């Protein structure tokens, strides 16, 4: 890394990119990036150019010697990269809209990460990620792969099990959002709050909550039994927790837990939303169009504030924070998706978990958590079973394995209905699922 | 056990008792019982007398020196017993009818073992079982407790965790029924078929299937993809498995898996049944009334064939077979609920599992299974979480813990709906749940 | 196995072969062997012929249609075999004599299984066993490999880790000898005694001892605190246990435990024996010469009683008993070396252990033991570490790894002395250790 | 902790105390101690006064408002303490001399932590520590117990298993010494070196070594194969490692590993030392006498440099560093003895381990290490077995259990010799082992 750091961002045309660039600019003093390669595919060329130009203007304004390259040539971008970040979306938001719409037709939540929607996002994404891994082995074997393409847990699991890349981290904005939410609730600075995170991606729990190092878990749980204090993310409709449930759970759930602890209510809500507002993908699509209109403005040279409504806020910032800590061997605590290594009892040592880690130059080192609370072991284990079977289906393209993944998903739990959804989704996503159609 | 074996049967007035007696008669040569104490409570006195008199006639016909005692004095029955069998039902079938009806009102399956119905059956049963355990410590500390009161898994878990009785076995007729079903399918004698069972009570899988020691799993799974070949129990409505699902599962599910792998279809079916035929409890209640009419016949001195339609067929026979193998140190293989001890990876060593065991005079010794298939680890873990939280709620009488158990149950998965069901069921079963109302 | 069973015995010229043949004759009714191939190498041709002719006379006397083939062509012997037994000794007894003599020069026990002697026996044996495994994959992929070449634990570990043969069982006569010793002590028939065995080969403990299914462990431990009641094997000099140690251990040690719980006394004793009587190998060599003189007698047509003094008594009989139980799916309990699969906590699931198993046509199924007593976990773990590092050294031929295995061995525990022993033994066994000299 | 921190130091009359005081003075800005209570027993009154007066002079010189209390009243010292540090020595150095001398008479190393000497130090110390724990429950239930009395691993194990105090940390100067040694070797500042520590107290390995976050393990191991580069502590005679052994071990051993990987050589060396120089205790006794002569000097008001030769250098500084990090929620990485919690595979989750931890106000959080290298699992497990059996013997005062601990110790490994040592040591330490003599 002598001559400055090279970053390759796959899916560089994403609307999130300005946040990424802003993060790099903010931390330039300690994270001297010399090259930022934004890669995209032909279908994303226009967006890549719009957002790439904005990136250039932002860097110019900051007066930093970071070269921004816009390219459709992934291999050129990967060559000698120090960090590879992945934020692409196979099939774009239209594919996500199908992930959400089709299951709902059968009364089932789509849920783009751990539900049937997530299954299909995984089936489309994992082969591409594994291709990238193979290229990384050849072109930048020492680079870190920082993935924030969803389903981040399943993708990390697949990389750990089916590639030779071991320097991989999966990233999510949910835990950081929970910490910021708690800080707002307590009316203190974010830096004073620390949550002990453990679980899986979008299935993570705050097992303990500290303010200046002293546990305030009971107080926080008490506070959030008041629905006005709910901590939510833009992507998930907010519903109120039953206070007695929350107290017995004795841990901070994440927004995505609504799908598993309020299943039938969420089905109703999403059916209603889909009808009245469109699904989340459809809403986001509009937001994105508006964002890209803004990005086109040749006078814009900062990240526009509207981006924060996009839902993935802090994702890119979390990525830059992580890269910064790895590069500087900072040894701070961050929640990321990494190999379990025994940190959480009951999850295989070689599986991906989302857990509080020390971030070193040698990668994230999970803090040993021990046993999850009895009441959450089951659901976490069930999503891990799902992730593993889904990853296998993505790699093998085996129909039966895909049906198995669909059926054991707790939002589906029905082999007959699962098959209906599977068949319709396979057909709808055919173009992006060659592994299921070419053999 | 010098002077002959003493058996104490709690819930002796059960309609199953004639099968138990028949089992003892058949095996008398190797299992020389001298005293059979049938115990019941005041409310069951009439049934106890009817079934007790039949038992006496059966033994008289067999010409065996077994003394049958009918009593409401549990302590007298337990005193110096060698085996204690438990087959009682707190609140009788009326309680079970509520366990089934109330959740259905909210669109949720009752499921008397691992669902909300099972939760309430556990809440009513566990305190009684723990009382029996305390009495056993005092009155017959060397006796074996053979429990076949449902939910047998949760009850065994509770005894292992919350009593000092370590000589406990939970028994179920489901695995033996699966073996007999496979034997019928293959048109061979039951003795030639052996299934490797692993999982939890009513959540057990046949991981491998042997005919004369050679695996025929693939063949059997292939056969049962034909719905005409379904292996079912009377208690669970039969629905067809998707063949591709079954092949990917690559294990023999039990009948109760329909609730978890065909959830929404089972809701519909049970709603329909409840409307047209009554719930299973209501059906059984009629069957039982008919059975007791038969039992009253002073000329009847054998187990009437009608009993086999009752649903619990082979339960009592399985119990006698187990007692026989313990008493004679037979070292045969039987599937029972016992302490895991590492046999199934991923389930706590001190939790109850249902697994193929060698039955010795020193109790059942589980065969080391290793890891469950990835796809089933999750669901099994989820039911174990549920069983453990439910057992804790039963012992503590804590409302919040009961709500937690209800909410994490995969058939409920909704804290709001769970609370509605919980509140209505607590009220309905108030009389039998003193631990929730007396503090 | 339609036309009768084919057995291939590698090392067929061994002095043990008559016991093997006797075992096959005794069990012929249920174990209809049609072909017995005794294989040896050129250097063993004479012994093979002597013992092979005796085998033929024994079978002729028994009037059974078993064809005995004597051959130096291992591939011909393996072709379509149903069971492959291995009882060869690379370098013959002269090599064992070096295994014992060289370490003693440095004040260290040789110990032909778990000591430096065992390390070298493993280094010589494992490459040959892995060759046999490769041939089995090609020539008899469905056969069972029944290994009783020492060090049986290390060899089984190596087959499990470094070959594709999964149908492998390691066999030892020590546990069966312990059961027979306890039976003699209690003056009862062997069939009434059952010991719960767990540990590793030559590092196995009787965790509980049953007479007719009832624990008599305390009584037996009490008995053997009397040195007149010691249970020993011919191979290991008997020394008295301290009664208080034995009571605190609360388990039945095997003879080989003297090396680890009486280390310095055993060094002295073996030094004295080596001087006065010769090492065990040297004693055995004389016994063997005498046996082969007996075997030559053309009138001898039964196993001569002198064989029982050889030290490995019951080895071959144990092998036949095991083959019999596998072939007939007998489901009896036998202690063998097999994959742990979670049966013993704290030992890797994929490592070999010696443990009580149910023997089925599908192989041995270990009984779940759970945790070993705290006091023995450490030593068992240490030998497992040694076995694994030693197996790696055998496969890689890496000098440093061999030195590591030598140094971590509890009988050596000295890198400097270990290096001296290693260097001298490598030189002495050069001919049989091509992997260390050819790269 | 509003009005400043209260420290209670049990064994306050120790020669280490000036280092402790120096540490507190250095960190006063962030660690505002208001009260330092130095406690000792009657026999230590003179030393307490000498060292206590020096402490007062040091604080006076620093101009800090820390009140130093000298007392024989332990309860008064514990009352409302925030941190309790333990550095006492039951029986003083005379007892240690016996711990070393007696085993050597039988050709066995004493080894004051993990050998027979350590066993007896544990038997004397653990009951006192458990008394302190009981008093802490009553007098300062929120305090942290920072133990640096040896054997620190066994003591921490005993507190975790046999007391209700969960806020306990065991501390050792060995790992910090290894890091400083590596820093010297690489000629860099200590702050740039970080070692991943895992194992047990005095049985800890450096699994990886980082310079500025980049692994330099291979380089360091290469360097220390040169005996001039050995990293040693004053307490353990230095011997050279065989380079090939070290390379295969592929981890940094600690000084105490000489006892286990150079056992017979260390016996010889210690026999020679004992004869020529006296045992370590005898050497230290002289050093201590000289130190106390220095301490008496009324003009001395700083820690004299001679203390660093004492052998326990950095112990007290490590303690202050730990207290500082806990108090300030510093979240830095320090190697300490704490509950394993799954961090090291194969060691019980509820046992003490020595491992790199993040130090928070909520205590040390171990970094998940996963599996130890195969070659070291065994020895680590053996010492853990020893520690657990020894702790049980200390608590129960059971002779047989003590003999079991003695015999399974890898330095003894002989029940007969173990009994001789045990009997002589029990007699020699009778006064301090009431649990073995009063029942």
UniProtKB/TrEMBL annotation, chains A, B, C, D:
Segments forming domain Glycosyl hydrolase family 4 C-terminal: 197-412
Record GO biological process: carbohydrate metabolic process
Binding site for substrate: 96, 150
GO molecular function per UniProt: 6-phospho-beta-glucosidase activity; metal ion binding; oxidoreductase activity, acting on the CH-OH group of donors, NAD or NADP as acceptor
Enzyme Commission (EC) number: 3.2.1.86
Site (Increases basicity of active site Tyr) residue list: 112
Taxonomy, superkingdom: Bacteria
PROSITE patterns the UniProt entry points to: GLYCOSYL_HYDROL_F4 (PS01324)
Cofactor(s) required, per the database record: NAD(+)
Family matches, as Gene3D superfamilies: Lactate dehydrogenase/glycoside hydrolase, family 4, C-terminal, NAD(P)-binding Rossmann-like Domain
Keyword line: Carbohydrate metabolism, Cobalt, Glycosidase, Hydrolase, Iron, Manganese, Metal-binding, NAD, Nickel
Cofactor note: Binds 1 NAD(+) per subunit.
Keyword Ligase listed: no
Record: residues binding Mn(2+): 172, 202
InterPro entries: GlycHydrolase_4_CS, Glyco_hydro_4, Glyco_hydro_4_C, Lactate_DH/Glyco_Ohase_4_C, NAD(P)-bd_dom_sf
Family named by the database record: Belongs to the glycosyl hydrolase 4 family.
Name recorded for this polypeptide: 6-phospho-beta-glucosidase
Species of provenance: Heyndrickxia shackletonii
């Amino acid at each position: 890394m002598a001559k400055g750091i090279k970053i390759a961002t796959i899916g560089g045309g994403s609307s999130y990119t300005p946040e990424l660039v802003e993060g790099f600019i903010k931390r330039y003093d300690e994270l001297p990036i010399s090259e930022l390669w934004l890669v995209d595919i032909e279908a994303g060329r226009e967006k890549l150019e719009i957002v790439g130009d904005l990136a250039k203007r932002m860097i110019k304004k900051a007066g930093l010697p970071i070269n921004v390259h816009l390219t459709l040539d992934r291999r050129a971008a990967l060559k000698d990269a120090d960090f590879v970040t992945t934020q692409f979306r196979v099939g774009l938001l239209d594919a996500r809209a199908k992930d959400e719409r089709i299951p709902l037709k059968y009364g089932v939540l789509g849920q783009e990460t751990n539900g049937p929607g997530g299954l299909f996002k995984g089936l489309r994404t994992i082969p591409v990620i594994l291709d990238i891994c193979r290229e990384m082995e050849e072109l930048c074997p020492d680079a870190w792969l920082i993935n924030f393409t969803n389903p981040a847990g399943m993708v990390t699991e697949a990389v750990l099990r089916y590639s030779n890349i071991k320097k991989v981290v999966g990233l999510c904005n949910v835990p950081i959002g929970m910490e910021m939410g708690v800080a707002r609730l307590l009316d203190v600075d974010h830096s004073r709050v620390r949550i002990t995170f453990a679980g899986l991606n979008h299935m993570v729990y705050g097992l303990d909550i500290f303010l200046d190092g002293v546990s305030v878990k009971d107080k926080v749980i008490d506070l959030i039994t008041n629905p006005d204090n709910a901590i939510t993310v833009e992507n998930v409709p907010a519903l109120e927790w039953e206070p007695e449930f929350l107290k017995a759970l004795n841990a901070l759930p994440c927004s995505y837990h609504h799908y598993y602890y309020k299943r039938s209510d969420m089905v109703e809500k999403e059916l209603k939303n889909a009808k009245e507002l469109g699904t989340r993908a459809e809403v986001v699509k509009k937001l994105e169009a508006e964002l890209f209109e803004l990005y086109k403005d040749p006078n814009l040279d900062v990240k526009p504030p509207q981006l924060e409504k996009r839902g993935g806020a802090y994702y890119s910032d979390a990525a830059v924070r992580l890269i910064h800590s790895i590069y500087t061997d900072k040894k701070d605590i961050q929640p990321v998706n990494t190999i379990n290594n025994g940190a959480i009892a009951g999850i295989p040592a070689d599986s991906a978990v989302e857990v509080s880690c020390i971030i070193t130059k040698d990668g994230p080192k999970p803090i040993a958590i021990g046993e999850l609370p009895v009441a959450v072991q089951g659901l976490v284990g069930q999503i891990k079973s799902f992730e593993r079977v889904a990853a296998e289906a993505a790699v093998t393209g085996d129909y039966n394995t895909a049906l198995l993944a669909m059926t054991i998903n707790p939002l589906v739990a029905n082999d007959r209905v699962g098959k209906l959804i599977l068949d319709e989704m396979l057909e709808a996503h055919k173009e992006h699922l060659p592994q299921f159609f070419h053999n």
